Amino acid sequence: MITLVGPATTILLFALVTNGCGTHPTPLTSARDIARASTDTEQIVIGFLPVGDYPLLSKFKRVKDVSYFTTDGTGGNDEKLHALSKVRLENLKGVTLLNCPRVTDEGIRHLAQIPSLKWLGLEGTSITDAALAIMANDMKLTGVNVANCLNLSVNGLLKLARSESLQSFTFPAESLTQEDVARLIGEFKPNLKWPSVVDLTGRLNASALEVIAQQRGFSLNVRRTGAMQDLGLRKAQSPTGGLQK
After folding, report:
1. In what order do the strands lie in the sheet with 194-198?
2. Contact indicator for 166, 192 with CB cutoff of 8 Å
3. Among 20, 47, 118, 223, which has the highest number of CB atoms less than 10 A from its own CB?
4. CA of 212: how far to CAs of 25, 138, 185, in Å?
C-alpha cells in the first residue's frame, strides 16, 4: 500500500500511470508556484492548491489538462471544481479526478459549465447515475473513465454508452451482471472505439463478451485492475470475493 503523500509523490505516480515517459505535469501548490510557472504550461496538478488561489490560474491560457490526483484522496472536491469552473481556461480539454472520493454529482454539474472539456477521469469518485446523465445530456465528451466508482447502475451507464460523441469509455463491473455488460455493448455507438470494463472480482466471462464486441466491429478490453489498483490505492478482489494478496 502506498503511504507517501505530497506534491513530489503525486507528480511521479500521476506521470507513471498516465503519461509513461511523457511530459510531466507542473505541480501548483501555492500562489508562488503559479507566479513561477510559465504561461505556456499545458498540464497542471492542483490537488494541493488552496481554492483562494484559483483566480490566479487564469494566466495559463494554453492549459489543456488539470489533475487533482493525490495519493491520500483529498485532492479534489465539489468546492474546488466550482472554483475551477469560474476560471476562464478556454483551452482546457481534460480534468483528472483519480482517487477523489469527495467529488460528487454536484462537482460534475460544475464541470459541465466548462464547454471546452472533452474528457474526464473520474475513477474513484463518489458520483452516481445523476452525474452520468449530466455528462450524456449536457456535455460533448470524447473520453470518460468511471472505473472504481461504486455507485453506478447499468441504467446510468446506458445513458452515457449511447453518447454520439464518446470514443473512449472505461466503466466498472461491480454492480453489473454478464447480461448487463452485454446489453451495454449492444448500445455502444459506432463512434465508441475504445470501450473497457474493469472487473475487480473476475466474475465476468471476458471471452464471451469479447466475442459480442467483435460481432459489433470493435474490441472490448476486460481488465482486472484500474489505475487505483495499479497504484496500490485499492486492492482488487479474487473471483470468490476475497482480496488478492
Report:
1. 26-27, 43-45, 65-67, 94-96, 119-121, 143-145, 168-172, 194-198, 221-223
2. yes
3. 47
4. 38, 30, 7
Q: Is the pTM of this model over 0.70?
A: yes
Amino acid at position 159, single letter:
K
**β-strand partners of 195:** 169
Residues 6+ apart with CB under 8 A from 149: 122, 123, 124, 125, 126, 127, 172
Tens digit of each residue's pLDDT (9 = 90 or more) over 152-167: 999 999 999 999 999 9
Separation of alpha carbons 192 and 203, rounded Å = 24
- Using DSSP's 3-state secondary structure scheme, residue 66 falls into strand
Q: Which CATH superfamily is domain 7-230 in?
A: Ribonuclease Inhibitor (3.80.10.10)
d(CA 174, CA 199): 7
Can you tell me the distance from the alpha carbon of 64 to that of 41, in angstroms, rounded to the nearest whole number? 9
Strand pairing of 26-27 and 143-145? unpaired
